[in-house]
Design a protein that fits this description.
alpha+beta, Helix Hairpins, atp-gated p2x4 ion channel fold, 2 domains, 8 helices, 17 strands, ion channel, ligand-gated ion channel, purinergic nucleotide receptor activity, transmembrane
């Protein structure tokens, strides 16, 4: 007896169906125009963006080893309140990594506190524990409560006198600093390609670095920068920034195409204002002829330069080139896919195109048993 396996035939049809492409030439100018435009867009993206702009055919190194050396040059004179003049040169200005100004000279001695400091008010000695610091004050309590005036008593403290004067000048004390120059020597090393490059011009002229000044258009290879130009490039004026200090980011970017001559690998500089206030304190100590301990305390308002270096280098590589080319070929297939979707689902004659594109070929598939 021969029987046909109905369940086996259904399973066979579901698992063993094979689909093959059927090409149908469509005389539709709108679809033809859309197809060519999509192809041009893909070609423009692959050739223009991937290969030309992004250099997708190159192997890259985006983690160079860098070194930075800076030197500040300039001389200025300031006049203190007591009419004394002080000369400032590069050794005074370049307190790495700061540029600063202004100061005063205090001496160590015992003094009474101020009634405006709440922690310094007292009635008797027990209110002034010896060795305790004065909160928001300027010294250590000596254990004595002394008369400040006819109405107030304060704790005696051991500290530096006189205390810091917070009065700010109306204009920068060292206005000549805007004409100071900052020499920035930067070297990058792309170890992946064994390639090193510096930002200094290779020249036999020993006076070049003494006379040149950086200009992004006329002298881009000179690593000597005028302070005023750097501040203005960051969007601020020197006079406004030098009074209370500030912080400027100096960003050096390298984008080197090693398929080109090494001379084409040049850095680009950018300057960004980070903060409009910056100051710090520094002190030097000495003894006078009477063996009295003194110190010179300087509160410096100045401009801080934070230098950062970023870079990448690229060179032709067969693997990235093959990957980028294959990706471009794959993208060309999207033009066909988009046109098929429009033709089969959005066009007015979508039903007609559907019937012409897809054709089902039926063949018998079953199992026969004989007994």
């Amino acid at each position: 007896m021969a029987t046909s396996g109905g369940g086996g035939a259904a399973l066979c049809g579901a698992l063993l169906d094979y689909k093959t492409e059927k090409f149908a030439l469509t005389r539709n100018r709108r679809m033809g125009l859309l197809y060519r435009l999509l192809q041009l867009a893909v070609l423009g993206y692959v050739l223009g963006w991937v290969f030309v702009v992004r250099r997708g055919y190159q192997d890259t190194d985006a983690a160079p080893h860098v070194s930075v050396v800076t030197k500040l040059k300039g001389v200025s004179v300031s006049r203190a309140e007591d009419a004394r003049r002080r000369l400032w040169d590069a050794a005074d200005f370049s307190r790495p990594p700061q540029v600063g100004e202004a100061g005063f000279e205090p001496v160590s001695q015992r003094r009474s506190g101020s009634p405006s400091v709440l922690d310094g008010i007292c009635v008797e000695d027990v209110d002034c524990p010896m060795g305790n610091p004065v909160v928001h004050g300027n010294g250590i309590k000596t254990g004595k409560c002394v008369m400040f005036n006819s109405t107030h008593s304060t704790c005696e403290i051991f500290g530096w006198c006189p205390v810091e004067n917070d009065t700010l000048p109306r204009k920068p004390l060292l206005a000549e600093a805007e004409n100071f120059t900052l020499f920035i020597k930067n070297t990058v090393n792309f170890t992946k390609f064994n390639f090193s490059k510096g930002n200094t011009l290779q020249t036999n002229d020993p006076t070049y670095f003494k006379t040149c000044m950086y200009d992004p258009f006329f002298s881009p290879s000179c690593p000597v920068f005028r302070i005023r130009d750097m501040v203005e490039a960051a969007g601020e004026t020197f006079g406004a920034l030098a009074l209370l200090g500030g912080s400027i980011s100096v960003r050096i970017e390298w984008d080197c195409d090693l398929d080109q001559p090494a001379a084409h690998c040049q850095p680009r500089y950018s300057f960004i204002l980070l903060d409009r206030r910056y100051n710090f304190r520094t002190a030097s100590y000495y003894w006078d002829s009477q063996q009295q301990h003194y110190r010179s305390l300087l509160k410096l308002y100045g401009i801080r330069f934070d230098i950062s270096v970023h870079g990448q280098a690229g060179k032709f590589g067969i693997i990235p080139a093959a990957v980028s080319f294959g990706t471009g070929i794959a993208f060309l297939g999207t033009a066909t896919m988009i046109c098929d979707l429009v033709l089969l689902y959005l066009d007015a004659k979508a039903d007609f195109y559907w019937k012409e594109k897809f054709e089902e070929v039926r063949m018998g598939c079953g199992t026969t048993w004989e007994s």
